[in-house]
Amino acid sequence: MKARRNKKQVPSFRKLIKTSKVKLENKLKNKQFKQQSTLKKYRKEQRKLRQAVNDAVSKKPIPLEDPKEKWAGKRIEKEEEEEEEALPLDMMDEDDLQLMEELGQRASFLTRDLSSSEPVHAKKRKHEHVIDKYEKIPRTLQTAPEKELIHLLPIKDKSGIIPQTREKPVTESNQDEENQEEAELEEETIEEPIRELTLEEHLIERKRKLQEKKMHIAALASAILSDPEGNIKKLKELRSMLMEQDPDVAVTVRKLVVVSLMELFKDITPSYKIRPLSEAEKSIKMRKETQKLREFEEGLVSQYKFYLENLEQMVKDWKQRKLKKSNVVSLKAYKGLAEVAVKSLCELLVTLPHFNFHNNIIVLIVPLMNDLSKSISEMCCEAVKKLFKQDKLGQASLGVIKVISGFVKGRNYDVRPEMLKTFLCLRIKEIEVKKDTEDINKLKKFMTFKEKRKTLSRMQRKWKKAEEKLERELREAEASESTERKLKLHTETLNIVFVTYFRILKKAQRSPLLPAVLEGLAKFAHLINVEFFDDLLVVLHALIESGDLSYQESLHCVQTAFHILSGQGDVLNIDPMKFYTHLYKTLFKLHAGATNEGVEIVLQCLDVMLTKRRKQVSQQRALAFIKRLCTLALHVLPNSSIGILATNRILMHTFPKMDLLLDNESQGSGVFLPELDEPEYCNAQNTALWELHALRRHYHPIVQRFAVHLMAGAPSEGSEAIKPELSRRSAVELFETYSMAAMTFNPPVESSSSKRKDKVLQGDSFLNEELNQLIERCCSQVTKSPLDFAKYLKTSLR
């Protein structure tokens, strides 16, 4: 039979060459590990051997006792030992004596010399007990500190090899080094006492440190502004100064760095949003300029993110009012830092609505609009109003409205009314939408045929024609797209606003948010869907009839109702007489003092209710309102009187038969009832506007001018006509123009210069000659007798 061939073949040289580099490295590592492990084992054995030698040298031999021996055997051994001890040593040679001592030492396991040349380990028994093994381990009783030995070369004698050892001299160098290190540490801990600075020296030192920090901040900021792409890494260095640890200048430096970084980001941030790169885009090779631009964008976004996180942390530290471990910033300074951080966030919210993390800024700002601190709340509300006013497209406004609506709902409508008053600044009017579209897409003036023929060649004219055609198409497409997108965003924004308003009307009618809601509904009423008109008017009338509203809130209800009816509500058959009656009743409840804010709402309501709805208003109703407004003008401030008289002038022009009130003769039957709250049945045609005669002598010149003008029948021409700057303005504009909120009189009072100044200074000219003589005679007489006032007092009492 043939021998079976081995299938396992020896690897060829080519296969060995193909062995991976990783495999070779693993083999080399395994080899080194084995060498190290064997070396460790050898060192361990040597250490154990040295330990055993030290134990054998330092201890006395202790014989083992055999527990199995009998007492008789022990007695015989004792007798033999006594006999051996009794032998005279003189009868033994020196060699025999030395041999016996060596045999005695080798007789016991504990006294065996492990360093001798003979074999140390005996053969182990197969069935040795565990306790016997433990008993054979040498005892280690350290009575004295171990001394380190030095093994010398052994000496060979007749008896064999004798090991030589010597104690290692203890070098005090290590101890000296340790003592020196301890002394150095003690010297470091014991610092030299710092000389206490006086207050003046401390202020000078603080001023010097602050100036150095300012110069450093200015240098970094100017370097970044000069070359943002090249020095983008210096933003990190500047941002690191937000963690200033010097307690003297920490707060001031942090404030300066916050403001400096805010201005830097406003200047170097591009006008587009930077998106993160995908893996495929990162792997593509690009030019150096593109790579540099990408690095700049990535660095800018990361530093901007860290900066916003630092600002958020400052606000949180102030809110939590907890001191940090460093104690660099006191609790009082937290508010100042938080105010600077909030101001920076508001500025970034307004100036960078297109950039990254704008939604994160909105989430930070909106809760602060409801903050207990009035300054921070006003700051955030003003920033949101500014954002609403300048947002042409509506994207940023929509984001803010969403967050505010969710916040109001989450707090169960327990928020500041100023939050909802910001909705009034939204740009959601059709006129503004059209105007914004024109601003965004300004018409480009194309060249005429004559201009082309003069300046361009035939081929250039052909190219120019094709280019203009393409531009027209692009412009039309862009305009339609931007308009559609804007309308879509505005519709979504209004839906959220109206949902918030209707929730408050339904669930929180006694909330302090109601005036803001009614004011907002009055502004955006023309944009409400017609389907909600009936339900909304019912709710408004129920609020007025409930009696829980103040007169300002009820005026807002009336204003909202008539805004609804003047727009798309014309198609509805609704009688608003109850709202006219309520406004007529509320006129005498207005505040006549400095807080005459309700007059402005009344002027707006009168414009919507009487002027714009002239065809639906009867003559009796118009006469009653004019009479009551003239009576009201006697009691309010000058600017309110001017606004009311301007409204009466407009009503006289709108309703031609209002001159009945300028005649003393009564028209028809009945007597005027001023206390009746129904304008249709108070018989206003039987009275006269006698209040104008009192207003003609008013201390304000404009009020006088309006009173004289109305008494003459409000003519458009002639000597009794008013100036164009007064006649062209609306009642609300005149109310605001002549307002005395700034404690100034408009027009300013002229200073009267006294012509008889010299005569006023002469005091004698006012006295009579006889009186002068009497005064001189009395002053010249000297009374020597003592003055007894009690005497004259008694006589006068009698």
Automatic annotation (TrEMBL):
Residues 213-307 form the Nucleolar complex-associated protein 3 N-terminal domain. It is found in: Nucleus, Nucleolus. Keywords: Coiled coil, Nucleus. Residues 554-707 form the CCAAT-binding factor domain. Residues 33-91, 160-191 are annotated as: Disordered. Residues 40-50 have a biased composition (Basic residues). Residues 62-78, 160-170 have a biased composition (Basic and acidic residues). Belongs to the CBF/MAK21 family. This is Nucleolar complex protein 3 homolog.
